[in-house]
Amino acid sequence: MPASDLNPTQSIRFSASIRLFVRRILGLFREPVFIALTIFGNLVIALSSISLYHLEHGVNPHIQTFLDALWWSVSTVTTVGYGDITPITQVGRVLGIITMIVGSALFWSFTALFAEALLSHDIFDLEIELRALGRNLSRIQKSDIQNQSETKQLIESLEAQVQSLKQKLN
Question: What distances in angstroms separate CA 54 from CA 17, 28, 60, 138, 161, one per listed residue?
């Protein structure tokens, strides 16, 4: 359903959801783990580009400029792997394998960070609500036990009064 088909209440909820999403993602950018992973990922791209260029330039016809090596490194780390540039030396291929593994690990790490940024606040809120519900349930149970005791005493008192009235009537 397009946003234009939403009624005013739905539009407000949709707008609030988008603002919440943006705020959580922007908050992620300030996290030290996110910053460290980003720096590490950029270092991997830089080092693998420089290494591939020095290993394959002049040997591999597809590596003519540093930009070719950078293209290969970015497409490998991001797990796109177009296949238009591939290493042909043994050391270049080992570098490719390492770059693929590190790129996959980075992808998994970033995915986990984004999921945590989007869901952790909701989980925290649910935990708080669950604890509050537990406290309320405990209070209700205590109140119920007390009410049962009071009700039992009241019934016993009424039964005693009924017995007393029965004796007076007899």
Answer: 49, 36, 11, 70, 104
Domains of the chain: 31-169 (1.10.287.70)
CB-facing half-sphere around the CA of 24: CA atoms within 13 A: 16
Summarize the confidence of residues 134-147 as an average pLDDT.
77
Backbone angles phi, psi at 18, to 5 degrees: -65, -45
Query: Tokens standing for 59?
Result: 């040997």
Do 55 and 92 form a contact (C-beta atoms < 8 A)?
Answer: yes
C-alpha separations of 35 from 18, 30, 38, 100 in Å:
23, 7, 5, 21
> What's the distance, CA 1 to chain centroid?
26
Q: Is the pLDDT of residue 1 over 60?
A: no
